């Protein structure tokens, strides 16, 4: 049943070519922009010297996962709810968990493809180094945990979105500031105000980024970061289980 829902979601995704194109284009576009603006020199991240291009390949890989599993799910589910698709689906023999699991699995697959594209593009164009061996294994664990957690948070967020028209604004307002404050677009160094570091440590984006960086850059890997992201995902799952709505809001 999950596989059937996955196939349906995948067909619906690719039948909207404009949405699919920009889902894949955004991370590469930002990778080119930031690398062009900041050059391809060296940067020191957690005591490890790396190329700027490699740094942004890792950052855009994290951004890809968040885009596919948080932004896309929250917005698309909100539109499906307002169009009555969720209500009709709820009236079929398909269990609710199978429908939601199919959406999450599809988002994880898209996120994995995005990460692979960013990695190959960074390697071919900027000669960025790629994870291997034990670092690659840890990176894949982080990718799976992050995808599941941000998907759960997206489903939880839909409970607080009043209608589909409001979903892009609410979703972007909830994630864009954290992307900047967590160092996804611009690395956070010791000169940043203390409150920025505090905000970054409270939310999962910073911990997810540091785990992804550890896989790509060889910086110190901390399992506590993965656990922190997983705990946020569990919290999102509990909220979604309690407040997720299958019917359009009035």
Structure, described:
The protein starts with a helix and ends in a 7-residue tail after the last helix. The protein has a two-stranded antiparallel sheet. The chain has 10 helices and 2 strands, in the order ααββαααααααα. The longest helix is centred in the N-terminal third of the chain and has 31 residues. It has one domain. α5 packs across α6 and α9 crosses α10. It has 250 residues and is mainly alpha-helical. A hairpin with a 2-residue loop joins β1 and β2.
Structural class: mainly alpha
Helix content percent band: over 70%
How would you write the strand order of the largest sheet? Answer: 1-2
> How are helices and strands ordered from N to C?
HHEEHHHHHHHH
Radius of gyration, rounded?
18 Å
Please tell me the total number of domains: 1
The total of beta strands comes to 2
Largest sheet: 2 strands, antiparallel
**How many individual helices?**
10
**Low-pLDDT runs:** none
Overall mean confidence score, pLDDT: 85
Shape: globular
**Could you give the distance between the termini?**
31 Å
Strand composition percent: under 5%
List keywords for this structure.
3% strand; 250 residues; 10 helices
């Amino acid at each position: 049943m999950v596989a059937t829902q996955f196939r349906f979601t995948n067909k619906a995704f690719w039948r909207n070519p404009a949405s699919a194109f920009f889902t894949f284009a955004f991370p590469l576009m930002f990778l080119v922009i930031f690398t062009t603006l900041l050059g391809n020199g060296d940067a020191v991240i957690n005591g490890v010297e790396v190329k700027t291009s490699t740094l942004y390949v890792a950052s855009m890989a994290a951004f890809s996962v968040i885009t596919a599993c948080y932004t896309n799910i929250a917005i698309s589910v909100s539109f499906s709810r307002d169009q009555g698709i969720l209500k009709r689906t709820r009236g079929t023999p398909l269990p609710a968990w199978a429908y939601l699991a199919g959406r999450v699995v599809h988002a994880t697959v898209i996120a994995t493809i995005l990460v692979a594209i960013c990695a190959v593009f960074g390697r071919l164009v900027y000669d960025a180094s790629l994870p291997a061996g034990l670092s690659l294994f840890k990176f894949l664990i982080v990718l799976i945990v992050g995808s599941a957690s941000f998907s759960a948070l997206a489903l939880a967020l839909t409970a607080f979105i009043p209608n589909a028209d409001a979903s892009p604004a609410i979703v972007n307002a909830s994630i864009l500031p954290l992307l900047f404050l967590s160092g996804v677009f611009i690395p956070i160094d010791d000169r940043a105000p203390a409150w920025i570091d505090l905000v970054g440590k409270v939310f999962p984006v910073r911990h997810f980024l540091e785990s992804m960086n550890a896989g790509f850059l060889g910086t110190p890997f901390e399992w506590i970061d993965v656990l922190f992201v997983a705990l946020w995902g569990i919290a999102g799952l509990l909220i979604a289980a309690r407040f997720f709505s299958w019917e359009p809001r009035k």
